[in-house]
């Protein structure tokens, strides 16, 4: 099956004032759509054509001849998750089991948030910061470059924040720290993250 651009799970203006309709129109309709269109062009006739998105991402990683497929397919996966990881009136209370685990592994929710923001801010250039459940069963904060994600770098991705400039430049200009802080404080869909946590455990 070809890659398909999903609709946003909320209205374009639903994440204001933290993420504007203009940002979402560019980010979803232009940037995410370009990954879908370019990915489909590159997949045509390749041995990964018709595979599941996860298999395409994993199967193209590290293969120089499939770098274009990897970049577009991985960004497609990242953005599908990213849209679902946010919601209107997000942030706020973290469901009990996940909050308990965050306190266990980071010391406090505030420490987790500080680590997450720091990972996003210190990712040099384009990329993502993540909350993952690692293979030893511990929560960890990681960061990846460009389109790379935990499917290929390890662990189960529970939460990811896009720190490409296209994600924040309209609303925050160059102030990436303010954007990542607003994301973790006011945009995260913790119910969705908790659901990913319960499935990963
Ligand atoms: Fe993006």
From TrEMBL:
Its EC number is 1.15.1.1. Its cofactor is Fe(3+). InterPro entries: Mn/Fe_SOD (IPR001189), Mn/Fe_SOD_BS (IPR019833), Mn/Fe_SOD_C (IPR019832), Mn/Fe_SOD_N (IPR019831), Mn/Fe_SOD_N_sf (IPR036324), SOD_C_sf (IPR036314). It is an enzyme of class 1 (oxidoreductase). The keyword Iron-sulfur does not apply. Keywords: Iron, Metal-binding, Oxidoreductase. Gene3D superfamilies: Fe,Mn superoxide dismutase (SOD) domain, Iron/manganese superoxide dismutase, C-terminal domain. Residues 96-196 form the Manganese/iron superoxide dismutase C-terminal domain. The keyword Cell membrane does not apply. It catalyses: 2 superoxide + 2 H(+) = H2O2 + O2. Destroys superoxide anion radicals which are normally produced within the cells and which are toxic to biological systems. Catalyzes the dismutation of superoxide anion radicals into O2 and H2O2 by successive reduction and oxidation of the transition metal ion at the active site. Destroys radicals which are normally produced within the cells and which are toxic to biological systems. This is Superoxide dismutase. It comes from Kiloniella litopenaei. The lineage of its organism: Bacteria, Pseudomonadati, Pseudomonadota, Alphaproteobacteria, Rhodospirillales.
């Amino acid at each position: 099956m070809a890659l398909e651009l999903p609709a946003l799970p909320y209205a374009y203006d639903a994440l204001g004032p933290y993420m504007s309709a203009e940002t979402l129109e560019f980010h979803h309709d232009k940037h995410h759509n370009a990954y879908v269109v370019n990915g489909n062009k590159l997949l045509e006739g390749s041995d990964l054509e018709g595979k599941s998105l996860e298999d395409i991402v994993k199967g193209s990683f590290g293969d120089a001849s499939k770098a274009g497929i990897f970049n577009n397919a991985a960004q497609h996966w990242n953005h599908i998750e990213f849209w679902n990881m946010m919601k209107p009136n997000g942030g706020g209370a973290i469901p009990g089991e996940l909050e308990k685990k965050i306190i266990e592994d980071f010391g406090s929710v505030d420490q987790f948030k500080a680590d997450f923001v720091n990972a996003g801010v210190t990712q040099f250039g384009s990329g993502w910061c993540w909350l993952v459940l690692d293979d030893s069963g511990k929560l960890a904060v990681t960061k990846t470059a460009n389109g790379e994600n935990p499917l290929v770098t390890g662990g189960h991705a529970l939460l990811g924040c896009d720190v490409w400039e296209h994600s924040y430049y309209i609303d925050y200009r160059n102030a990436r720290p303010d954007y990542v802080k607003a994301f973790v404080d006011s945009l995260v869909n913790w119910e969705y993250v908790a659901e990913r946590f319960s499935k990963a455990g």
